[in-house]
Design a protein that fits this description.
Elements: E1 2-8, H1 12-23, E2 28-32, H2 38-43, H3 45-63, H4 78-102, E3 106-109, E4 112-116, E5 119-122, E6 127-135, E7 139-141, E8 154-155, H5 157-161, E9 169-173, H6 177-189, E10 192-197, H7 210-222, E11 225-229, E12 233-239, E13 242-247, E14 253-255, E15 257-260, E16 264-266, H8 273-276, E17 299-301, H9 312-326, E18 341-343, E19 349-353, H10 356-360, E20 366-372, H11 377-381, E21 388-394, E22 400-406, H12 410-422, H13 427-431, H14 442-451
Parallel strand pairs: 1-2, 1-6, 2-3, 6-17, 8-15, 9-10, 9-15, 10-11
Antiparallel strand pairs: 4-5, 5-6, 7-16, 12-13, 13-14, 18-19, 19-22, 20-21, 21-22
Helix pairs in contact: 1-9, 3-4, 3-6
């Protein structure tokens, strides 16, 4: 059997590419060895954010007395919570399956392997050919040799999201996005949480300004999350049900479970890359050019297996660009510097473009404006006064260079900023657009006005 397009991997990159190819009338097959939706939908983005929303209710209930509203102490039924989370996932995966079917995509439940020359063999023993092959096999949690996931006390992020138990004391190795998001969830569920990070700062691989990370660290401390920065985790032992984490320096930390969340690595094994002539880069990602072409003719790669941020929306953007090119449409790849980032800690963090520090490194004058959540009536009414909006623009033409938001619903609020940067808009484009009152997006407008020295509701810089 021959297809126009065969995609290996059914995550956000793979299924998006398949649907778009189907829309363009290309005969398309999607090969997925597990569940449609990949890690993001089944074991990552969606279950994490569902639990983030669910556990936020616990915090809100515990502090509602500040508004004169009292509740009985909330009780968490882990089995029911896990079932609800699974229902959210199942609804989305079912929807993806229907969309693939409606767009004429053949979904094949199997593992796929390249055999060269546009040929693919399946774990079922079948084989077929394709004019173009797209590798979208995603990534998996990095496993540290001293902390094997096969050991019961050692958790991966998948284990943490399974909600089998709420440890009295959860020790998390890794102060990046995944570690801190899960720290937030488990602290709300009642765990004492300690985060051990090798580097001297949390979220160190993300272009955030110190003001932003300092605000988050204060908030995490208020939530009872203990941050041990610049600390190396070396080994562990279990003694009488107690798990003891040994550090390079200092006394060991005793807890119930150790969650290893030190990043992700691309799934590039057992794909037949050598047979097909597909090369990897020094970091172990599939090497691609600006058109997402690999070193093998007719083989392309998208998402977590290629260099760049491992984000579902980045994979989807890659997918649409690639599919449009397959359909002979004019298409431009997404600019990596304009892909927004959202982090579901409490408070949330979002960003797009470059930080203030990054802008200063450009060597030209910049304008910086900020506005605190505490100055927004909507935020005060929500009891969400922690955080701020920050905008950075070029002084010469006022064109936006970057935006950072830390505070309630920051992940949703970054959308306006992402459009503004994508379209090359100026500070004036934000300030001259009337924003509804009282709302949180007013904070972006106020920050832009502050950068221009004409903010109404804060003292100008």
């Amino acid at each position: 059997m021959r297809y126009d397009i065969v995609i290996i991997g059914g995550g956000p990159g793979g299924y998006t590419c398949a649907i778009r190819c189907g829309q363009l009338g290309l005969r398309t097959a999607l090969v997925e060895r597990a569940e449609l939706g990949g890690v993001c939908l089944n074991w990552g983005c969606i279950p994490t954010k569902a639990l983030y929303a669910a556990t936020k209710l616990l915090h809100q209930a515990s502090t509602a007395k500040d508004m004169g509203i009292s509740f009985e102490t909330p009780k968490v039924d882990l089995a029911e919570l896990a079932a609800w989370k699974a229902g959210v996932v199942a609804k989305l995966t079912g929807g993806i399956g229907q969309l693939l079917e409606k767009n004429g995509v053949d979904v094949i439940q199997a593992e796929g392997r390249l055999t060269g020359g546009g040929s693919i063999t399946l774990s079922t023993g079948d084989a077929f050919e394709a004019d173009r092959i797209v590798l979208a096999t995603g990534s998996r949690s990095v496993e540290l040799p001293p902390f094997p996931f096969a050991s019961e006390p050692i958790w991966s992020s998948d284990d943490a999201l399974a909600l089998r138990e709420v440890p009295n004391h959860l020790i998390i190795i890794g102060g990046g996005v995944i570690g801190l998001e899960l720290a937030t969830i488990y602290a709300r569920l009642g765990s004492r949480v300690t985060v051990v990070e090798l580097l001297p700062e949390i979220l160190a691989t993300i272009d955030l300004d110190r003001r932003t990370t300092s605000t988050l660290k204060r908030a995490l401390k208020t939530q009872g999350i203990d941050l041990r920065l610049g600390t190396r985790a070396e080994s562990w032992e279990e003694d009488g049900g107690i798990v003891r984490l040994h550090l390079a320096d200092g006394d060991p930390i005793e807890g119930d479970r150790i969650l290893v969340a030190v990043g992700r690595r691309p799934n590039v094994e057992d794909l037949g890359l050598d047979d097909a002539g597909v090369e990897l880069d020094p970091c172990g990602c599939i090497a691609v050019n600006e058109h997402l072409e690999t070193s093998a003719s007719g083989v392309f790669a998208i998402g977590d297996v290629v260099p760049g941020p491992m984000l579902a929306h980045k994979a989807a953007a890659d997918a649409v660009f690639l599919a449009d090119r397959f359909g002979d449409l004019d298409a431009e790849p997404a600019d990596p510097s304009l892909i927004p980032q959202a982090i579901f800690t409490d408070p949330e963090i979002s960003s797009v473009g470059i930080s203030e520090a990054g802008a200063k490194d450009l060597g030209e004058p910049i304008l910086v404006g900020r506005f605190a959540y505490a100055g927004l009536g909507k935020a005060l009414g929500m009891r969400e006064s922690e955080g701020f909006f920050q905008v950075i623009a070029r002084e010469a033409d006022h064109r936006l260079l970057g935006v950072q938001i830390i505070g309630a619903e920051a992940a949703d609020l970054i959308g306006e900023a992402a459009v503004a940067l994508q379209q090359g808009l100026t500070l004036e484009a934000i300030t001259e657009s009337v924003h509804a009152h009282p709302t949180l997006p007013e904070g972006l407008k106020e920050a832009a006005e502050n950068a221009l020295g004409r903010a109404i509701h804060t003292v100008n810089r």
